Amino acid sequence: MLSIIPKRAESTKIYKNLEKYIRKHYDKATLERVGPFIMDAEQTRERFIQAGSPSGDQIPQYLQSLSVYYRYVKALENRLPLSSTNIKFTWLDSLSKRKMQDSNFLIEKIGILYNIGAAYSKQGADINLSSADGHKLALNYFQVAAGCFNEVRKLAVEVRQSATIDISPEHLTFATYILLAQAYFCMYDKLDKATANKLNLAKLSQTISKNYGQAYELAVSEALSRHIGEEMKNILKFQQLSFAAASKYWMSFIDREEGSKLGRGFGKGVSRLRVGFDLIQRAMQTKNIRGPYLESGRTLLHQLKTEKEHAEAENLSVYMDSIPEAKALQDPEELTMIAPKFPPMVDIVSPINGEQVLQALVPPAILALSAEYKELLHNMILEESDKVAAATRNTTQALESMNLPHKLDAITVDNGLPDSVWKKVQQVQSYGGFAHIENGINSLRQLSENSQKFIAELESMVIREDEEDRSLRQMYGSQWGRAHSAAVNTHLTSDLEKYKQKLIQAINLDRTNYQILETNNEALQLLKKSKVELDQMMPPVENIGQEQSPVVQALKGALATVDQTQKSLQDQMASLTSQADQDNIIEHLMVIEETKTPKEPIFQQEISKFSPQREGLLNTANQLRQTIDAVASANSAFDRERGSYQSNPVRVQLLQNLETAVKIYNELSANLAQGHQFYTNLSQHLSVLQQKVSDFVYSRNLEKNDLFAKLSQSGFPQGGAQNQYRPSYGQQPNPYPSAHSNPYPSAQSGYPQYPPPPPPGAYYPPYPGK
């Protein structure tokens, strides 16, 4: 089976560069404390670099090195100002071999997750399916590999460069389709073909063919064609055709069995065998197919030829049933039971041993300031995203009001799906398609549950401390001479309540996303279909002619300008998002903390760095409005000369459904990205709050022990309630709304902002110029 080629990383002197930084900004003791941890991280990185592209028994150790280093990276990010340390990470594109180098931990996480996915794909491809649990293990490996690539897709949006092919949405989706096809093949191969349910075999074959077909379409697309080898393309084409033939073969048994019982319909089985035989013949004509692929093709060719001849003879002598055309046959249902899995089986989540030493570089107070600044950046991105979304929405509405581009397609496209529409559908598919939305909603549900548990854990710690204080106060009366817990923990309970309310708002928005998915499920299902399938669904147009007319060309040119301007707007937004995500001002924050200077002016100054990009977005949005004016003018000229052309209403409806599906997909995709960012930021804030709660409980514990000592000296016995200062999920916070409960909110205004984790102060200073 097929596997994904891993990326290659170059060695980086992490310790040497960081040593210079620490000696410059800290003392020798800090270096002695932090140095061993940094050295271990560098050595772990070097181990997987030296492993190259492992196979067989080497893969488990390789995965272990990758996963441990990933945990090192998670500990180090946001604690090291990489731009000031001269540390640069270099990764080579696995397809183009071009280098990507940056002082950014994000490219490290992307490279590691990519290679974890590649390693699991190699394990799945190399496993002996006839071994004990071979099918089950291979299927699981392919699912986990797909899950890793799906996670890379989310992260890579912020660092993607035009020359980066392997982490492009097209290639990541290409890899995912192959992995899912092979996962379904594991199910197919395990079944006993003589006794298995023929409909299940047909469905599995159809699903395998569909996934290989989607991978093939991407392999020959403009984005990937130059980077995917001919051998790979040939294998994908062969697998698509051969499993499509197998699906027809298995469905023919069902049709013929039903036809023999009813006395009619036997011809459907004959038709399927003819189509299947034609497909496998085409598959066998594919160049340079050899080995197991060739053998399986020969076997299927023989089966189809034999069964077709037998069925044709039986129909002629017994049933005399008519043979329907191939397009009249309905394909079996495509299966969706296999989905990408994440996180992988290796541990990439647990804290790394000894990471506490990093507090010597970035203390908790700095982390709190960093979380606050990151929230300001997030809100800036939300503000600009809303503007871009509004400009895009206005453009779509303006085009729809002029019945464009459908009206133009009525006279410029003969049959099949217009290229302009297919490009939009293909772009959606390259970003993960329908599965991306489903996985995103499931991911939000999991993040929401984790956040609820986190808050419950912190609430439990505060409540337990308060209950113990009440118990001891009741036991010792006036002798228990310290402040009531309720009087000194208000800053904690207040923050907890604020975060709970923000989380409830987010859950309501999650519910809205789920409702949008359910309401538009039928239209969104269209985004699963291939170009061939959509072409077959499209009825021919009427009023074809005169594509070269000047008014037609003028309108097409105006629409092309709109598309180019919209793409420019999206690219600028992606660039701003990437720059904001990579912004690291830890050094400035340390100066704020050391000098006790106000944070607000520094925050405003740092935010102002992005003013040129924001101004560029505004200018492009204005240009987009001007392009719509140009389209309106060209459309008026078109209507005057051509009149109001009407296409087949079925065709128009299908085109509108596709446009709606793309629009809904983009809306949901943006909402899900915003939701993931919300939960990421919430996690950072809760981590800061967790440190505060732990410090509070620890200090109260010290006070308690001091009071016990004094009371013991005064003749009072020690005692009191035992307080376990450990997280407990037994006590849940106030009930949260279910992610799928009703009623749904009537409008979506974006995921909520947070209250500041530090003591009272201006959390949202005004942006420059406001």
UniProtKB/TrEMBL annotation:
GO CC annotation: endosome
Ranges of compositional bias, category Polar residues: 713-733
BRO1 domain residues: 1-399
Record's keyword annotation contains Cytoplasm: yes
Compositionally biased tracts (Low complexity): 743-752
Keyword Cytoplasm: yes
InterPro entries, per database record: ALIX_V_dom, BRO1_dom, BRO1_sf
Keywords: Cytoplasm, Endosome
Localization terms from the record: Cytoplasm; Endosome
Biased composition (Pro residues): 753-770
Region (Disordered) residue spans: 713-770
GO BP, one annotated term: protein transport to vacuole involved in ubiquitin-dependent protein catabolic process via the multivesicular body sorting pathway
Alphabetical list of PANTHER family matching this protein: PCD6 INTERACTING PROTEIN-RELATED, TYROSINE-PROTEIN PHOSPHATASE NON-RECEPTOR TYPE 23
Protein name: BRO1 domain-containing protein
Organism classification: Eukaryota, Sar, Alveolata, Ciliophora, Postciliodesmatophora
